[in-house]
Amino acid sequence: MAMTNGHLIRSLDALWSSPDIARLFPEYLILLHQVIRASVPLMEAARSEALKLPIGDPLRDPLASYFQHHIDEERDHDDWTLEDLSAAGFSKDEILNRIPLPTTAAFVGCQYYWIYHHHPVGLLGYILMLESDPGTTEVYDDLERRTGLPKTLFRTYRMHGELDPQHVKELDEFIDSLPLSESHLSLMGISAMSACIGFAECVTRLQ
């Protein structure tokens, strides 16, 4: 996990230090929009599959409850990102009509495979990876200063910086409360590692 996380960190560091960051940061937000718009549908699929587990399965109700709670928390976040880009002068239609790259589709798509064809608990690894490093106020301030881009473009990015640490704390506590088998833990680990590698590839493609 450390090696794959290191790959993602290097990809993001290269992006943030790029002399072309003023052009690349909006592209990064468009990538985030493409990823975030899949979050609620992914969790809806995972909740539905959790409820198909046998009654009495100790993961059935806790997973369904967690996904429903997090669906409510994450709903419309893709629209927020789209509004930020629109307020900064980017066309909503152009963003929505852009076909996501295969790397983006693969990054998200493998989660559907594990949800439908193995076990919905795997999605917890993906969520944990996405919310584990939302950035700091210092990072956002530096990006604003270096890019000269409108402050509105950073609104949702800053909001996730405030919300995600609490979400990660809640998710850590939730995972600790579950009676997970070795198979469940392995799937969550594979899911998280896949997410690290996949998102690193998505970021690298921007540069």
Task: Write up this protein.
The model has no long low-confidence stretch (mean pLDDT 90). The protein has one domain: Heme Oxygenase, Chain A. The protein is mostly helical and 207 residues long. The chain has eleven helices and no strands.
Task: State the helical fraction.
Answer: over 70%
Average pLDDT taken over every residue: 90
Overall, the morphology is: elongated
The structure class reads mainly alpha
- Number of DSSP helical runs: 11
Count of individual beta strands: 0
Main sheet makeup: none
User: In CATH, what is the homologous superfamily?
Assistant: Heme oxygenase-like
Layout of secondary structure:
Elements: H1 2-16, H2 21-36, H3 39-50, H4 60-74, H5 77-87, H6 92-97, H7 102-117, H8 123-131, H9 137-147, H10 155-177, H11 182-206
Short description:
With 207 residues, the protein is an all-alpha fold. It has helices at 2-16, 21-36, 39-50, 60-74, 77-87, 92-97, 102-117, 123-131, 137-147, 155-177, 182-206.
List keywords for this structure.
mainly alpha, Heme Oxygenase, Chain A, 11 helices, Long-chain fatty acid--CoA ligase, elongated, 207 residues
